[in-house]
From TrEMBL:
Residues 7-231 form the ABC transporter domain. Pfam families: ABC_tran (PF00005). PROSITE patterns: ABC_TRANSPORTER_1, ABC_TRANSPORTER_2. This is ABC transporter domain-containing protein. Belongs to the ABC transporter superfamily. InterPro entries: AAA+_ATPase, ABC_transporter-like_ATP-bd, ABC_transporter-like_CS, ABC_transpr_LolD-like, MacB-like_ATP-bd, P-loop_NTPase. The keyword Chloroplast does not apply. It comes from the Bacteria. Keywords: ATP-binding, Nucleotide-binding, Transport.
Length: 231
């Protein structure tokens, strides 16, 4: 695989069931994401977006093909190596935030930094810095239940950045948000893009295209077309 590409897939496939129940959720996909690219993969519900993202992030194993991240083959790694890869090199953002309800905003971010092996003082400093970066310095001690949806997703994005990930993988990050909150989150993704963070966002929300360098359309488990936004 090419060293210049941060993230690559070759012949990537994930099938569910067999015979009558066979679903080709991801069907023979090739993908090259250079470092620093903000990629949006768009398509209707059920086209395989979440499955693709989970395969790329080592949350699920393919039934065929290969995934490479930073020159290392992901799909054949041991569970242990996969857990370490996810912890150290990938930032995940989910539609429903996945925050710890009983931890404050800053503690949610800090916990991820601690789990990634940062010493406690550094983890706290980094969490404070990241919350400031996502515009939530004044909400650091609030619980998720005391935050709006957009604020929760910004905490989740700060958490995804706690390990200085090679790539942020986001699955419908605006899926549970109203229009105002969607714009908050899009603005934040645009800042990450401008700062050179490699991003893969899968969504059916066409607004995400505004913060991507490249948009791929997905249908029935395969890529339909690819557009470079060219900036
Ligand atoms: N665990 C599973 N078992 C069987 N079929 C599944 C499973 N997960 C997803 N699928 C099917 O795979 C296809 C792609 O699903 P998914 O990746 O969730 O699509 P999207 O995220 O684009 O909505 C759908 O047809 C879905 O029903
Ligand atoms: Mg999905």
């Amino acid at each position: 695989m090419t060293a210049a590409m941060l993230l690559q897939a070759r012949g990537l496939s994930r099938r569910y069931g067999s015979d009558d129940t066979l679903v080709r959720a991801v069907d023979d996909i090739d993908l090259d994401v250079p470092a620093g690219q903000a990629l949006a993969v768009m398509g209707p519900s059920g086209c395989g977006k979440s499955t693709l993202l989970q395969l790329l992030g080592g949350l699920q194993r393919p039934t065929g093909g290969e995934v490479w991240l930073g020159g290392r083959r992901v799909d054949t790694m041991s569970e242990r190596a996969l857990a370490k890869l996810r912890r150290d090199r990938i930032g995940f953002v989910f539609q429903d935030f996945h925050l710890m309800d009983e931890l404050s905003a800053v503690e949610n971010v800090e916990l991820a930094a601690l789990l990634a092996g940062q010493p406690p003082r550094r983890a706290r400093r980094r969490a404070t810095y990241l919350l400031d970066r996502v515009g939530l310095a004044d909400r650091a001690r609030h619980l998720p239940s005391e935050l709006s949806g957009g604020q929760r997703q910004r905490v989740a994005i700060a958490r995804a950045l706690s390990n200085e990930p090679d790539v942020v993988l986001a699955d419908e990050p605006t899926g549970n948000l109203d229009t105002a909150a969607t714009h908050e989150v899009l603005r934040l993704f645009d800042e990450l893009r401008a700062a050179g963070q490699t991003l893969v966002v899968v969504t059916h929300d066409a607004r995400i295209a505004a913060v991507a360098d490249r948009v791929i359309s997905m249908r029935d488990g395969a890529f339909a077309d690819s557009l470079h936004v060219g900036r």
